[in-house]
Design a protein that fits this description.
Distance between the termini of chain A: 14 Å
Number of strands of chain A: 0
Number of strands of chain B: 12
Structural class of chain A: mainly alpha
Order of helices and strands of chain B: EEEHEEHEHHHEHEHEEHHEE
CATH architecture of chain B: 3-Layer(aba) Sandwich
Largest sheet of chain A: none
Distance between the termini of chain B: 45 Å
CATH class of chain B: Alpha Beta
Oligomer: heterodimer
CATH superfamily of chain B: P-loop containing nucleotide triphosphate hydrolases
CATH architecture of chain A: Orthogonal Bundle
Helix content of chain B: 25-40%
Shape of chain A: globular
Strand content of chain A: under 5%
Number of domains of chain B: 1
CATH topology of chain B: Rossmann fold
Number of helices of chain B: 9
Largest interface: A-B, 24 and 33 residues
Chain lengths: 331, 259
């Protein structure tokens, strides 16, 4: 087993991401011939092809990349910070809180007034959740207090979501909420892209800036401090990065699970296994995986379009089975 | 060259007073051993000297700066720390792990320079683990791992080194190697402070011993002055046979004193 970074890891992941992006533009329910696509790209093309490519597939592709990148990166950063390979983006409660905001928008019918009220409310509640996280976790340096505070916030938001389902006036309203919660990139516009992109950019920058502190945490908290790491700053960046980035991503896509959990596991064996070394590969891998999964839901023939969150959950199972088998030395 | 001072240091962990009123001056060029029974406050004292626990009262200075006014990075460059029985959370390569020691010297975004890598290699060979460079640290034996972690602390290249029980998990040969190494560091002008349980090693190698009991510093001086039949009986509750071999005492614990 090699423990050094595979020299081609980053180039291969970039190529895979570009390929996924290209696939996302060219594959879909309506078949478009390469000639028609080429015509649109060069500025010409017919009306229908233009509408499908520029107004439907391009924003969907961009959101797949942006949301997937954030989920992959935040999973990798949290696994490093918490020194727990089972950590994932929802662990600090940001994704549940964002989902609660979205569910409120659906429950009170606000999303019918204007479709962007939903993501705005989702981002607002995920910011409120950071505030609650600060109050609950306090200034302590232990990751345990952060997990406990995150669980408290996530559970409260989960209870709110369950309450809205419980009280929903009719089955259709409940269905609308359920279907949003499953996560999807269907029918998203550029407004969604412009809303998610800045959040994800800020979140990603904060998490990547923490890379070196995460490496030092391999030696535990005191070991990291003795290497000059200011744990409070590191923790602040981690909390803000996850809340802003994941909050922004979930606001436009719904809760898409497992990407943040499995991508770090997929790339880790190809790196030197230090927490900082998996950050960028997880960002790229998350973008590629979610975009590919989104192509999958469009191509798999089902009566209703398959929800993205359902497919990623299904993908998560074999990855964990492989890890389990390795752990039990059956492989 | 670094001097660490404490004055009337009191540390409380929860309700328990772990350190009460410890004043000491630790000067460069010395190998200082901290000894005492379990729970005497040895580890807490060195954590307080590193600013890792906040004292309830009293102060710690590194050279002329109060520790509260120094950033973690400032402290990290001046004092290297080898914690007790460190857990490793990820299966890193030995060379990658030891290179973490260079972190206090790196600017944001900069990578290890050739000079940093030379320092890492030197630290690996001084701790006698250069041959383990390409191995995965979590797959090493306890003794190998302890020496790799010592190399990590040496790689910091700080003028002071504080090591908490560096001899635990080592066979007698490697115990002697590590003590020789710590002594050589001190002779080269560093301040080396180490918590020890082996009184024989403490007596044989240290220039000065601090004997702790119930959070207090009960004796401070040359091994011959600190390790007496009376102090061993009072602090450890043991009877011991003490012989003098040239300049240092030989200590053989012979039994438990029952009160």
């Amino acid at each position: 087993m090699s423990a050094r970074r595979h020299p081609l890891l980053i180039p291969i992941l970039i190529a895979l991401t570009l390929l996924a992006a290209l696939g996302s533009l060219t594959l879909g329910a309506v078949p478009l011939s390469p000639a028609r696509i080429f015509a649109v790209v060069t500025g010409g093309g017919d009306e229908v092809a233009r509408a499908i490519l520029i107004d439907l597939r391009l924003p969907r592709m961009l959101l797949g990349l942006v949301v997937g990148a954030m989920l992959g990166l935040s999973g990798a950063a949290l696994q490093g910070y918490l020194r727990n390979p089972l950590a994932e983006p929802s662990v600090l409660g940001a994704s549940n809180a964002a989902a609660l905001g979205a569910v409120c928008a659906l429950y009170f019918g606000l999303s019918h007034i204007h479709p962007l009220i939903l993501p705005v409310l989702a981002i607002a509640t995920s910011f409120a959740a950071i505030g609650a996280l600060f109050l609950l976790a306090g200034p302590s340096e232990s990751p345990l207090t952060l997990i406990l505070a995150g669980i408290a916030v996530a559970t409260l938001a989960g209870a709110g979501i369950a309450l809205s389902l419980n009280l929903s006036p009719n089955p259709f309203a409940a269905m609308e909420i359920m279907s949003w919660l499953m996560g999807s990139l269907e029918n998203r516009s550029y407004a969604h892209v412009w809303m998610a992109l800045p959040c994800v950019a800020i979140g990603a920058a904060l998490l990547i800036a923490d890379g070196r502190s995460l490496d030092a945490l391999t030696l535990g908290e005191e070991g990291a401090q003795a290497l000059g790491v200011d744990l409070r700053t590191a923790r602040l960046r981690m909390m803000l990065g996850v809340a802003i980035g994941v909050g922004g991503a979930v606001a436009v896509s719904g809760a898409i699970g497992f990407v943040g959990l499995i991508v770090p596991h997929l790339v880790r064996p190809l790196t030197d296994r230090s927490p900082s070394a998996i950050l960028i590969p997880s960002l790229l891998g998350g973008a590629a995986l979610l975009t590919l999964a989104d192509i999958g839901v469009r191509l798999i023939p089902t009566s209703n379009e398959l929800k993205l969150g359902v497919l990623t959950a299904l993908l998560g199972v074999p990855v964990f089975l492989v890890h389990l088998m390795r752990e039990r030395r059956l492989w | 060259m670094v001097t660490i001072r404490s004055r009337d240091l009191v540390v409380r962990l929860g309700r328990h007073v772990a350190i009460s009123s410890v004043s000491t001056l630790l000067e460069p060029g010395q190998l200082v051993g901290i000894i005492g029974p379990n729970g005497a406050g040895k580890s807490t004292l060195i954590r307080a000297l590193l600013g890792l626990v906040r004292p309830e009262s009293g102060d710690v200075w590194i050279d002329d700066s109060a520790i509260g006014g120094l950033s973690r990075k400032d402290i990290a460059r001046r004092v290297a720390y080898l914690p007790q029985g460190q857990t490793l959370h990820w299966p890193l390569l030995v060379e990658r792990l030891v290179a973490l020691g260079r972190m206090p010297h790196l600017g944001p975004l900069s990578r290890l320079s050739e000079q940093d890598e030379a320092i890492v290699d030197a630290a690996l060979s001084r701790a006698d683990v250069l041959h383990l460079k390409g191995r995965i640290a979590t797959e090493l034996s306890g003794g190998e791992r302890a020496r790799v972690l010592l190399a990590r602390a040496l790689a910091v290249g700080a003028p002071a080194l504080i090591a908490d029980e560096p001899l635990a998990a080592l066979d007698p040969g490697h115990q002697i190697d590590v003590m020789d190494l710590l002594k050589a560091e001190a002779r080269a002008g560093s301040l080396v402070v180490t918590v020890l349980h082996d009184l024989g090693m403490a007596a044989r190698y240290c220039d000065r011993l601090l004997l702790m009991d119930k959070g207090r510093l009960v004796a401070d001086g040359k091994p011959m002055e600190v390790l007496t039949e009376q102090s061993l009986a009072e602090v450890y509750g043991i009877s011991a046979c003490i012989e003098v071999d040239g300049d240092w005492p030989l200590i053989l614990p012979t039994g438990r004193i029952k009160n």
